C-alpha cells in the first residue's frame, strides 16, 4: 500500500541527504518486507542521473551494474549488491545540473508556439545529390579535424545563445 511509496521516498531522501545509515535502514526495511529488488534497482538507476548526475558520472554505471546483478542472482544474494549501491550513492557528491537543464529544454519546447524551428541546413545529413544541392551539410565543420575549438552554431537561429543550464522560471 502506501508504505511502499513512503519507504522508497525515505530511501531516496536519505541517499540525497548523504545519510548512509538511514539509506541502509530503508533499503533493508523494503527488502526484508518483500519488496521486489528489481523495483529498488530501477529506482537507483533513476537516482543516479537525477540526483548525482555529473558530480559522479560513474554512479549510473554502479546503478546499472546493481540492476544487472539483482537480475542475475535475485534475492537474498542480491541484497548486498543493492546495499553497496545505496551506500555509494549516499556518499557520492550530488548534482541536479543535468536534471534541471533537461527540464528547461522541455519547458522551452512546451512554451513554443507554432511550428518548431527547422534543423539548420549545415547540421543536416546529405545522403543524396538533391539534398546536397539544397545546401544540406554545407559549411559544416567536422570537429575532430580541427585542433582548436570550432566556431559553429548547433541550435536553431531562434534559440541562438540559449543556455539551458542557467536558471529559468520556476
UniProtKB/TrEMBL annotation:
GO CC annotation terms, alphabetical: nucleus
Cross-referenced SUPFAM superfamilies: post-AAA+ oligomerization domain-like
A GO term, aspect molecular function: DNA binding
A Pfam family it matches: MgsA_C
GO annotation terms (biological process): DNA synthesis involved in DNA repair; DNA-templated DNA replication
UniProt KW Disulfide bond keyword: no
Keywords annotated in UniProt: ATP-binding, Nucleotide-binding
Domain MgsA AAA+ ATPase C-terminal: 17-167
Gene3D superfamilies noted in UniProt: 1.20.272.10, DNA polymerase III clamp loader subunits, C-terminal domain
The protein's name in its UniProt record: WRIP1 ATPase
Species, as recorded: Origma solitaria
Gene encoding the protein: Wrnip1
